[in-house]
Amino acid sequence: MSVPTRARFAIGSAVLLIIILGACTAPPPPAAATATLSPGRLPAAPSSSPSAGPVLVAFPTLPPPSPTFSAANTVTPAATITSTQVLTASSSLGPVVQVVAPANNALVSLNQTVYVIATVASDNGIARVDLSADGILVHSENAPSPISSFPSILSWTPTQIGNHVLRVVAYDVNNLASTPEDLTVTVVPDARRPLANIVFPIGQPQVELGNIVRVQAVASDDVGVTQFDLLVDNQLYTYVTTQNPNGQAFFPAVFVWRAMTPGSHTLVVRSHDSQNQTADSSPLKVFVTDSHPPAVSLALDRTSVLANEPISVTITAVDISGIQRVELWTGREISGTISSSSAARQTYMTLQMPWQSGAPGDYTLTARAVNANGNYKESPPQIVSVLRPGQATPTRGPTPTPTRTPLLRPTMTPTLQPPAPPSAQINQPTDRFSNLWPIRVVFSGQGNAELDRVELWGYYQDQLSPQLICTIEAHATTERIGQCDWSPMGAGLVYLFAQAVDVYDQIGRSAIISGFIGIPNTPTPTPTPAAISGRWTATIPTGQYVATVRMIGTAVRGDFKTVITGTETVGRITSGAIRGDRVTFHVDFGPATTPTAAPTGTPTASGTVAPTATATVPPSAPSLDFDCGLDSTASSMDCKTKDSRGRTGTALFKRE
Length: 656
Fold this sequence. Notes:
elongated
């Protein structure tokens, strides 16, 4: 190969090598290169070259590599960043923190545990989360393992009132900290009132008279519940306290209430916290029914007498809700009635009355006792023979008397509290008092520390829990004397004790005294009330009243109907009584029914249309109260009326 040919081959190889290197490394455009070639390999000099010395060769500037196009006509970069470069770039980013709760500027209670809920995340993995209060670390939580996202719950209990700054900081596995997340909370003595709830029973329970109602309740508070009360009909019935002076956050309790009075009652529980704040539960309505009839017995001093010769009849009646009256029946007629002047307290009644007849024959005597709720019961009948002069006395077989083994009545043993600094005593009445009603009690309390209050408690022999009768505030004195009048619900054996409570919630209890509550004096027999049973009608300016009256002793019951402007409303006489020449009764109505003027109907087999009565049902009519003067001779009642809306009127009833 000739020298010029070799020179050209060398130059071409160098150019090809430069192009390949440029395609691989994409360097900046190279400057013109200077090549020194040996004399033997120089190409032929151009004809214009004046000499044959070294020659400078200027290489062309290579353009940057062009991007390549894929089949989908997308651009693929010529150079990409490696995974090592990505890790190196992200390792400089710290974790991210988001605080979910509490809200900024939230109010929290002193000594209440505050839970700060935060979510943190980092590509490098979370190592731990720190919570600081006013620059002091209070809680640090480590992640279970390095994870990219970690929900954290951090707790803090404030011990000082005022504003505090809480800061949450997260750290990744490289100990790189996040940007701090700050929030401000305000600590107050007590941010929330306590809570009180009755969990059982629910709804509107109905219980029988004398039964026990167990009220399960729960109280809670941020700073602690110290006392839990049960109120019945807006009166404090009983309460319990915690053993911890600062209270407890969750306080369940079971109250026992004995239903001793028929009717509707409202029960409420009230919680007290250590900041002297209170809260009441939703009211629980309890309806106490009394379906028990009284017990009654009849005894005769003899069963055979001559005409017009009196015998002595002894009647005894007992009922827990009180005896309203006792009646002596001869066959189907009332021979005499004795009514109680205090039916609610007359739980026991015994009386004697004479009975005689001038007509010979056999007579059936029966005693009927009616309690305060209108329930009644009759004694077994007794037969009395009224003889003519000289008539032999009939001989009857003995009547077996049922015997019953008396059950031992449980005696309640009150649970005495441990000895405490205060002391209490009952000054009046003395132990084993009797026949007092109402009971006037003088009691006192003394303490080495200042007293908060002095209480009087009482209960019946078969009552499971004592009842708070009254409270006397001590006004921070060391000795306090109080006086209360207690009117028990009925006769029987009762117990009383006093309690002194000092400012440290220490309790001192007096000795328990007992006594017997007497019953009212037996009233004198009253004349048999006039019979008003039957149908009575009154015409009023707007329509008509129709009353169908039934008598049960002196009680009045029955049905009632009004026809006013074409509307007929049916009601019931739910309560009432006759006392001498006065009759009172109360009427309750159901929904009124007004027939439609144009009836509709369906065709029958004969082609006629059978009307179908339609009716509209407006709201219930107002209830009515009647106060009437009775004229037995004229068989009329002159009544004054008043409805539940306060409207008054008059009505003159005539017996049909």
